[in-house]
Amino acid sequence: MDPLSIARALREVSQYLQLKGEDFYKSRAYDLGADRMAGFSGDLDALVREGRLTELPNIGNALAEKIAELHRTGSLTLLEQLRAEFPPGILELLRLPDLGAKKAAALHKALGIGSIEQLEQACRDQRVRGLKGFGERSEQKILAGIEQFRSAHARRRLGDVLPVAHALLAEVRAAPGVVRADVAGSVRRWCELVSDVDIVASAPDSGPVLAVLARQSGVREVLGQGESKCSVRMEDGLQVDLRVLPDEDYATALHHFTGSKSHHVRLRGRARDLGLTISEWGVMRGEEKLPVPTEEALYALLGMSYVPPELREDVGEFEAALAGNLPADLLQGSAVQGVVHSHSTWSDGRSTLEDMARAAAAMGLRYLTVTDHSAAAAYAGGLDETRVRSQWEEIARVQEAVPEIRLFKGLEVDILEDGALDLSDRLLAELDVVIASVHVRHGQDQAAMTARVLRALDHPCTDVLGHPTGRLLQRRDPSPLDMPMVVERAARRGVLLEVNGNPDRLDLSAEHVRLALQAGAKLVVSADAHSTQALHNVAFAVHTARKGGARTSDVLNTRGPDEFLAEIRRRRNGT
Fold it and tell me: Other CB atoms closer than 10 Å to residue 11's CB: what's the count?
């Protein structure tokens, strides 16, 4: 069994142990093991064969035995035993907002509930409200959560879909006769949730290109195939549509199928005013078909500046493009010089500090802030003051070993329930970069949560507000913050707002990026990397920031290491 499949199995064990009410640290050990396997890129065969699994961080003897069993046999006796104790659909309950393992176990024990459908029916029959710890309000919240879950899961997180889209695009580009090909639709616009994948290609003969998609190994069924389009459903239910046209129609087709619908409505209105019509088949002036070799040429025909795909949402970009006011220096990934949020095996990261440094250097980055968790995040192996100072010694050693990248001493410090920062002010003042983040008690009301975050923003050592709303896409709603007040305070205090590129977060959202920029706040785009591979999450942050209209000058980590650190210190000194 491969490492990713092992990670899924260990995660499943953890969930069942939580349902059984086992000790927190026991289930947490399986989660940590799953994290380790999910980010593992070494020779697993050798580690299992030579009995060296315990050399990996967070892998003890018991967990090593389970991993070895999974790798050798493709199954795990413990997992099969746990599955036999519960209905097959019970783990779905843990995906509902705010339900949790304790409540799911209580519902199963009292009412035999083992699926979302059974839970929904029990709530509608008013059988849940009579249970200890539940009530009428609980039933209504559960029903609302089920509706939210179903609505959200009709769409998928961009981070889950993008690798599939890129892999299929590579196959299409390699198909016989293909001239150009790109991903279109909401994936190309970098929407945080997407419903399907659209690919547009040009070729003199569409048949061989469409056949390439139809015969992909991950395709479960071909939904339809014609002269210019093939639609398939992948094994996980994801629908993929491929359109192949003559190259002269490529640009208008790509633009049409990129969307959004509301952006296109505005463009068609503009075209009518100019005596033109637009469709995927081209731009027409009466009976005359106008040449449109690129999307830039399409906008030029309409007397408009080119609108990048991320901005095509009818949130002001049409007026700006018509007036020629779109930002000329919209943030580019190549402008990012450093990653400002990373974790290592010192806390809950899956890669060593040296591995993270070498990987960042290999990406061409100039600096990396080391920001493991602080002590309050005990569940993530957070660092107390003694361990923080010990880590500084390793940072110095790694800096010497990897001189091509600059390492900054940082910490992701918990914002406690009252808004105070974890660890002493004296220690925080010695750090190069302090990211202040909320990790627990997300359920406070708006007044309490806003006051909590505002107090953290007022702390002189807060340099960055990490994942400001605390949301987890499709799993946890944003905290009920007064965001206009938060971004205004951040702007006034000079605290940077993080655009977190973890695909589970994308926090700030594009909407909140726009709000922050309007308030005059500055940003950082971050990877929130817990492994070397996750350093590439910074791309999600860049495109989210672009979607919100961020320019290069709005993002501090587009500056070099000296200027970046000088700006952090200037803010702390109030100069």
Answer: 18
Q: Are 421 and 382 in contact (CB under 8 A)?
A: no
* Residue whose token pair is 């709005």: 554
- Condensed to tens digits (0 to 9), the pLDDT of residues 183-196 reads 999 999 999 999 99
Q: In the listed set 134, 154, 174, which residue is the last one of a domain according to the structure?
A: 154
34 shares a domain with 22: yes
| pTM as predicted | 0.78
On whether both 542 and 415 belong to a single domain, the answer is yes
Encoded amino acid at 169, one letter: L
One domain, residues 467 and 538: yes
Question: Strand, helix or coil at 472?
Answer: strand
User: Half-sphere exposure of 239 toward its Cβ, with a 13 Å CA cutoff?
Assistant: 12
Within-domain flag for 250: yes
CATH number of the domain bearing residue 528? 3.20.20.140
Residue 331: inside a domain: no
Q: Give the number of domains in the chain.
A: 4
DSSP state, residue 421: B
Token pair of 455 as six digits:
């107090």
303: Cβ–Cβ under 8 A, 6 or more apart, which residues? 270, 274, 322
What's 394's DSSP letter?
A: H
Does 95 fall in a domain?
A: no
Positive/negative CA dihedral, 530, 536, 539, 540: negative
Does residue 330 form part of some domain? no
Residue 463 has, within 13 A of its CA and on its CB side, a CA count of 30
Residue at which a domain ends, from 154, 175, 190: 154
In this structure, the answer to whether residues 423 and 512 fall within a common structural domain is: yes
Question: Structural domain of residue 175, as residue ranges?
Answer: 157-323
pLDDT at position 343 is 96
Tokens of 367: 């600096």
Question: Which CATH number does the domain housing residue 170 bear?
Answer: 3.30.460.10
The separation between CA 397 and the C-alpha centre of its own chain, rounded to angstroms, equals 32
The predicted pLDDT at position 23 comes to 84
3-class state of residue 481 by DSSP:
coil
* pLDDT-based confidence at residue 153 (cuts at 50, 70, 90): low
User: What value does the mean pLDDT take over residues 345-374?
Assistant: 96
| 3-state SS track over 132-198 | CCCCHHHHHHHHHHHHHHHHHHCCEEHHHHHHHHHHHHHHHHCCCCCCEEEEEHHHHCCCCEECCEE
223-227, 396-400, 496-500: least confident range: 223-227
CA distance 471 to 507: 7
Provide the token pair at 25: 């640290």
DSSP state of 552: G
Within 494-560, residue ranges assigned H as helices are: 510-519, 538-547
